[in-house]
Amino acid sequence: MSSIFDAVYQKSLDDPHGFWGEAATGISWSRKPTTILDDSQAPVYRWFSDGELNTCFNALDRHVRAGRGDATALIYDSAMTGNQSRYSYAELTELTARCAGAIQNLGVTKGDRVLIYMPMIAEAVVAMLACARIGAVHSVVFGGFAANELAKRIDDATPTLVIAASCGLEPSRVVHYQPLLEEALGLSVHEVPKVLMVQRDAWQAPMREGRDYDWSVEVPKAPMADCVSVAATDPLYILYTSGTTGQPKGVVRDNGGHAVALHWSMQHIYDVGEGEVFWAASDVGWVVGHSYIVYAPLLAGATTLMYEGKPVGTPDAGAFWRVIEQYHVKVLFTAPTAFRAIKKEDPKGELLLNYATDSLSALFLAGERTDPDTLHWAQQKLGVPVVDHWWQTETGWAICANCLGIQDLPVKDGSPTKPTPGWNLCVLDEAGNPLPPGELGSLAVKLPLPPGAFPTLWNAPDRFIESYLAAFPGYYNTGDAGIIDEEGYAFILSRTDDIINVAGHRLSTGGMEEVLADHPDVAECAVLGIADAMKGEVPMGLVVLSAGVTRDHAEIVNELVQSVRDRIGPVAAFKLAAVVERLPKTRSGKILRATIRKMANGESVTVPATIDDPAILIEIRQVLDTLLGR
Ligand code: COA
Ligand code: AMP
């Protein structure tokens, strides 16, 4: 029997023009689109191609004009500094307009890129919206990345301006952003002419005359800039994400499709609207932060909550419950790893009893598969629907979810429920043929992708086609493998490439291998993700040393750990590495990473028929047992 949800889903596939045309009426356009879906350049599709709008206007000004200027747009809560602030729609609009004026004064115009390197402070939201206001393209870089990664992004995006903060605050230390930025500016080929700096109380950064400008001086005195109308297909932002190599992919988001899809998602997926408090406990450096800390809640006229802190240790595992109670949060969105961290500290959920969390109506989880233990714990402790939903930086919003605003479907353990409207999800075999229900294959989405999904990669239209569209003509290859069961429920089981998810952060093992291979004593190496009870996965490296190297192995391992931290960043959490005599390979010389991973995870391993020398597996097992303390 077809459900309400199934009917909505089917309509989205049968009549995408009608479906998304109607959704587009939720957005204020300076020029209403007459073309809903432009397929003239297929397989590259564009949504609302003759429409014009301004995303910042839709996120801020229009709510003020509708008489909701006093409603709270942004709540900022820092568990690190104790700062708790509220910004009404009117206040956030004025601040953003002044920031937009300030960056115009610093030479930024429509189409220019602005790189934002900031921790979880309200100014990061203001900076992003200010770029959108004047049609500049922001590129936010997560603070946990090292200078080298920042430099790669500077060279790819070639920004006119960097907006940064002096420092970020982690529980164990102050992270000095400015020296990392300075190092990145030295490493990059592209010359960044100007830097706008937020000086935080915890550490004041030195300023370079003629290049660096102080936010607290420039923004208040700047004139308020008006919203600039842009084409629906103009880029709103570039967000770099890990690919299979060390060169990150610049995922491009357009203005029109993004605004329509995110606005639609707030009501239909999250069931949150005007005046309700939505909290995405993520970071503005990730796609979750872009979509659900900044844009979607504001497009919907809701209140968004920005939290600087951790789920545990700031000060304890009751931190999330405190925030929910204090601000009457309706929906919380975070990664399963945050709940595993809370569960580990407070297994019985005793701290929950100290807070009234009855405002909460649902918990959404993403970034990695929600394991059944975490799902059950959260369901039982919170007593609200817990929704595992699956998405990617590329897609910008959920491919699969239990759409609470349409119909609360029964959930199945380990499944992010069903494909969301607009996503024609299929399971394909290696030749690209659709597989029957229950069979494992590549998860691919039949084109066109719905609005809000990326139309291309920055500076790399060919890589966009090669990486995502070439494997299965007519489909977007998600890079995830899984099944869809008889009832249409999807199960996301693994990546088909060498991307891993560490505490919900997406990282490339290929990128880490590039760093290890650069060590002068390393002849070859393999990095793979192994299971971790808290972070889901953590990277582990095995290296073979060059002939004649007699140095102490522990010393080399320390250098390798440090170089991944220095070149990729602490967020990679690369702490496990060992020296081996040889790596297991096929006769054609391919390293058997999947076999090593299974052995590390303690799974049973059938010796691959193609292995060059099965005896190596015994040596590898011994090394793994020592490394993993078994
Ligand atoms: N700037 C600088 N450094 C950062 C950083 C930032 N914005 N964010 C993290 N780091 C550093 C941390 O300090 C840590 O460094 P360390 O090795 O010196 O301890 C390292 O990067 C790893 O950080 P993290 O992944 O946060 O792990 P953790 O062990 O500090 O905390 C959790 C574990 C589960 C509490 C944490 O990962 C968490 O809160 N996750 C929530 C989920 C989430 O944000 N997901 C994002 C996608 S939804
Ligand atoms: P990111 O681009 O950082 O959002 O990472 C996207 C990848 O994270 C996906 O391709 C999946 O491998 C994984 N992922 C995200 N959400 C889920 C989920 N709910 N279930 C399973 N895997 C997920």
From TrEMBL:
Pfam families xref list: ACAS_N, AMP-binding, AMP-binding_C
One example GO MF annotation: propionate-CoA ligase activity
Organism field: Aequoribacter fuscus
Cellular component terms (Gene Ontology): intracellular organelle lumen
Name under which the protein is recorded: Acetyl-coenzyme A synthetase
Family membership: Belongs to the ATP-dependent AMP-binding enzyme family.
Cited PROSITE patterns: AMP_BINDING
